[in-house]
Amino acid sequence: xxxxxxxxxxxxxxxxxxxxxxxxxxxxxxxxxxxxxxxxxxxxxxxxxxxxxxxxxxxxxxxxxxxxxxxxxxxxxxxxxxxxxxxxxxxxxxxxxxxxxxxxxxxxxxxxxxxxxxxxxxxxxxxxxxxxxxxxxxxxxxxxxxxxxxxxxxxxxxxxxxxx
Length: 164
Prior knowledge:
- By secondary structure, the protein is an alpha+beta fold.
- It has helices at residues 44-54, 64-74, 112-122, 130-138, 159-163, and strands at 8-18, 25-31, 37-41, 78-88, 91-99, 105-110, 126-129.
- It has one domain (5-147): Bifunctional nuclease domain (Roll), CATH 3.10.690.10.
- Strand 4 and strand 5 (91-99) form a beta hairpin.
- Mean pLDDT is 85; it is low at 140-164.
């Protein structure tokens, strides 16, 4: 299923921070043309992959997301965009939209952190479905967060200062 752009909000990495309560990394997505802010709790390895690319650090050997980027390019695919598609039971979902050499569209399911790390390496835009923003804004704070599942965790008390 290909999304209509009207239901999508383009975002960029606003910050990569640590949750002071759980010491879990948080990728903060910020709207490019809006005041949208979406925090996504991620695993340490995924946060490191995102941080390396944001800081333009080139490892001696290709890391997993670098390998994926190389595979995408060698297979003749173009990454059109990453979409954070859903938030169910405090777990975010994402898809990566590719176009092959013949112009065929292909969507691959992905964890948001992996999709973001790959989007940074392939220089493609990141979007969030409006529905996800609405669900996230109205979600109750869960009792505990599971970083591997990329759960929505409680916002720290000093949240505005952390992303400012």
